[in-house]
Amino acid sequence: MLSFHQADFCLISEREGDHNWILLRNDPMVALIPPGHPLAKETSVPMEAFAVESNPQFPTMDINATYSMVEAGLSIGINNQVNSYLWQDRVVHLPLKPTQTMNIGLAYEKNISLASQAFLHFIKDKLPEY
Question: What are the distances in angstroms from CA 20 to CA 9, 24, 28, 32, 68?
Fold first, then answer.
């Protein structure tokens, strides 16, 4: 939407593009494990576990679909921790080994409205590094 000038800013993971960027959080990635899976008893999940997992692979960009497949025992998955709070009681969340993180922030257009500029000034005033 930023590329097509349909939005002045958005909260997204860090990515290439013709926009400005403000880092808000370096979010840890977590393994998503069905409750009855052998890995559910571990304290962390090695990245190698994803290469040897016998479940089918279902790539998706839909967070709810990912969690539903894991909850149903169809697969294990990975997601960033900030997106996992709604599923805490239905899917086991474990840290990855080695730790993996995702930068989440505010991407914004170079030419934005006055209201959006005021919002960005407000955000920057609240962030310690600005």
Answer: 9, 13, 23, 32, 34
Res 130 pLDDT > 70: no
Give the pLDDT band of residue 109 (cuts 50, 70, 90): confident
User: Confidence class of residue 95 from pLDDT cuts 50, 70 and 90?
Assistant: very high
Largest CA distance in the chain: 54
Bond into 98 cis (ω within 30):
yes
Q: Tally the residues of the chain.
A: 130
Predicted TM-score (pTM) of this structure: 0.79
Helix (H, G, I), strand (E, B) or coil at 7: coil
Q: Quote the tokens at residue 14.
A: 């860090």
DSSP 3-state percent helix, strand, coil across the chain (nearest 5): 30, 30, 40
Please tell me whether residue 24 adopts helix, strand or coil conformation.
strand
Backbone φ and ψ for 87, nearest 5 degrees, come out as -110, 15
**CA pair distance 110, 5, nearest whole angstrom:** 10
